[in-house]
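Predict the 3D structure for this chain.
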Amino acid sequence: MAGHSKWSQIKRAKGKTDAARAKVFTKIGREIAVAVKLGGMDSNANSRLRDAIAKAKSQNMPSDNITRAIKKAGGELGSINYENTVYEGYGVNGVAVIVECLTDNKNRTAQDVRLSFDKFGGSLGVSGCVSYLFKNCGLIVIEKKEGMNEDDVLATALDAGAEDFSSNDDVFEIITDVNNFYEVLSEIEKHNFTILDASLTKLPSNYITVIDTIKFEKMLDMLEDNDDVKEVYHNGNY
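Done. Predicted structure below.
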């Protein structure tokens, strides 16, 4: 089994400055708050909260921060109502881009997202124009260490219920179905592996080589710096 590495994108996000990481924690805190407001504080019964917690852990958000965000979620939001919105479009070289947002002002967010595309050679499209190129799935990334046997890791992943497995650079990547992501993760956690990332994500069915990498990365930075943006997915290879 093989697949294009997702780890390069994850490393890009994890390599940001402390200030940028603080912004990421703030965004995740908002997601946790919305999840609690909509479904309660029990992550076993609230799948949206469970997803937000998994995302927080994948970004190395301290457990105390997660617990604190859950506990104060109800009062923190007050009368503010956040909505999920998704924008689709194309970056330079025709790269497909999906932007997931959580906003209390859809007009503001739409304008900001459009500006990010327009400023760096992209174009915002209509709903559905690129989403068909992506698959919703779970992703678990395990660090390769000396002495690890790839066949053993593969067998562990498949026995746990994984859909796909690949060995890329210094990591193993395990792909799961969305519906059994947590079951697979639970089984993987029982083994002595170092898990670098575990989250629900969107993986593209094909990749496009990015020629103007500087312009493309500037667009990604502008989108990710927007407080309303939760996630940015793309099929660019650079």
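Residues 39 and 93 are 41 Å apart (CA to CA).
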